[in-house]
């Protein structure tokens, strides 16, 4: 059938579009993203740039929980793993009773994200889970987020070296936590560049082999196709990095929804937002995907919203069969064009960081923080002016809505004390508007 039709060039399509516009400028159909990438009204094989595809075989469903009580955390993890989760991720910043927590849990289904550097405790956790669980640390990420080291750079780095000596060579124990950059307002090209710079900083300080022991965490935003392209682009960039260092590519990507667009009002819309974001993560090629409850930012952990969050991923995997469409973007001119441009622009940022002394040097000078803050200010202004829409919050508002009970403080907390560098602080776009609306309802914090 296709032989009956003449092939049309990109130029011919453009002329046809211009004719149909009847005098309206063709350029008016082109929009630009914060990454300075033009989104064109059509993409054609004439402009096609083939991009290598690195497709994973499957993806694992994860559920997360910060440990407050070992017995409760164990029960929640057991229930989640019995009801569809493949992985359970525990977050903690204090030591805990290991035996109570891991009782009757499959060690190979556990990930521990540690925001502390108690080496004896971490090694005990490794031994008691028979080396089957993943125990992840990220002192550089901690420094970026809080503006201080656990102790100081020298002592923190010495502890990493000690862990390197004690843990198996192929054991993943470093987490490159890029979530904080995204959740504080970084654009995609910055996320990609900072992820590379963050990882290379570890390689330069602890040897290239540490690149084989990394998990990279990404927060996924609301720009559907660009978020797909983000993960695909990072896989290509990472392959280039490990190739240059001549080490094996053991990259594991862990993705979850970002917080920037999540809201207190009309909170069920958060389910739609996170579903789209997880779809991006799956198609983009994340290995492990964790959702969080729609009410995470204003309610304590509860079984209803946890179950909904887990089931969102189960539906995508087992009913929508997304796990069978992991190579679905191959030959997609639009996504591959975006990927190519994201790679070029993020590499430019990465090279500039390296030329200027490396990622840590730029954190110490406050340059990374300045760049993220600049973009965050632009994005916040766009939201405040109604250009960036969050349905139910600054558009299509239900003035009669009664907000659900707020169990936890829902806004960015101001940190006290001195810091070595300005911290990179995650913040939701709707916070100022929500605070004002709650105050008008007589709810104060």
Quick synopsis:
The chain has helices at residues 10-21, 70-82, 98-102, 119-128, 139-146, 153-166, 179-184, 188-206, 224-245, 269-284, 303-319, 333-355, 359-364, 367-384, 431-440, and strands spanning 31-32, 38-39, 60-66, 87-92, 110-114, 134-136, 174-177, 214-220, 252-257, 288-290. It is an alpha/beta fold and 445 residues long.
- CATH superfamily of one domain, called what? Methylmalonyl-CoA mutase
Number of DSSP helical runs: 15
Classification by helices and strands: alpha/beta
> What is the CATH topology of one domain?
TIM Barrel
Number of strands: 10
Distance between the termini: 67 Å
CATH class of one domain: Alpha Beta
How much helix is in the residues?
Answer: 40-55%
Biggest sheet statistics: 8 strands, parallel
Broad shape: globular
Q: Give me the CATH architecture of one domain, please.
A: Alpha-Beta Barrel
Give the radius of gyration. Answer: 23 Å
| Beta-strand proportion | 5-15%
Name the strands of the widest sheet in spatial order: 6-5-4-3-10-9-8-7
Low-confidence stretches: none
Mean pLDDT across the residues is 95
| Oligomeric category | single chain
The H-and-E topology, N to C, reads as HEEEHEHEHEHHEHHEHEHEHHHHH
């Amino acid at each position: 059938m296709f032989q009956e039709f003449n092939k049309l060039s990109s130029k011919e399509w453009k002329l046809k579009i211009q004719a149909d516009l009847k005098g309206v400028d063709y350029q008016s159909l082109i929009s630009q993203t914060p990454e300075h990438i033009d989104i064109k009204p059509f993409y054609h094989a004439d402009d096609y740039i083939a991009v290598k595809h690195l497709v994973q075989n499957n993806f694992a469903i994860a559920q997360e929980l910060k440990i407050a009580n070992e017995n409760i955390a164990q029960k929640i993890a057991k229930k989640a793993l019995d009801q569809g989760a493949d992985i359970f991720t525990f977050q903690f910043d204090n030591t805990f009773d290991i035996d109570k927590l891991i009782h009757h849990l499959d060690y190979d289904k556990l990930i521990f994200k540690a925001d502390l550097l108690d080496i004896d405790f971490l090694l005990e956790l490794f031994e008691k889970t028979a080396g089957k669980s993943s125990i992840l640390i990220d002192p550089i990420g901690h420094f970026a987020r809080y503006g201080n080291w656990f102790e100081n750079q020298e002592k923190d780095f010495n502890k990493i070296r000690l862990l390197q000596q004690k843990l198996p060579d192929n054991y993943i124990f470093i987490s490159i936590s890029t979530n904080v950059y995204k959740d504080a307002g970084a654009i995609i090209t910055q996320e990609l560049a900072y992820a590379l710079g963050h990882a290379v900083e570890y390689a330069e300080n602890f040897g290239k082999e540490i690149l084989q022991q990394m998990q990279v965490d990404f927060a996924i935003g609301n720009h559907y196709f660009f978020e797909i392209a983000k993960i695909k682009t990072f896989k290509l960039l990472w392959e280039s990095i490990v190739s240059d260092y001549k080490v094996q590519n053991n990259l594991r990507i862990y993705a979850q929804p970002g917080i920037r667009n999540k809201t207190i009002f009309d909170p069920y819309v958060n389910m739609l937002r996170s579903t789209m974001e997880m779809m991006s993560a799956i198609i983009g090629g994340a290995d492990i995907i964790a959702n969080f409850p729609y009410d995470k930012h204003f309610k304590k952990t509860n079984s209803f919203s946890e179950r909904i969050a887990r089931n969102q991923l189960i539906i995508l995997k087992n009913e929508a069969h997304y796990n069978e469409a992991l190579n679905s973007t191959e030959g997609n001119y639009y996504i591959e064009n975006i990927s190519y441009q994201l790679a070029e622009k993020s590499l430019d940022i990465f090279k500039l960081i390296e030329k200027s002394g490396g990622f840590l040097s730029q954190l110490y000078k406050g340059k990374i923080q300045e760049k993220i803050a600049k973009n965050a200010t632009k994005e916040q202004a766009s939201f405040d002016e109604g250009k960036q829409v969050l349905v139910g919050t600054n558009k299509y508002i239900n003035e009669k809505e009664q907000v659900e009970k707020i169990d936890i403080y829902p806004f960015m907390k101001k940190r006290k004390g001195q810091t070595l560098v300005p911290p990179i602080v995650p913040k939701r776009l709707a916070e100022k508007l929500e605070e004002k609306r709650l105050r008008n309802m007589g709810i104060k914090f």
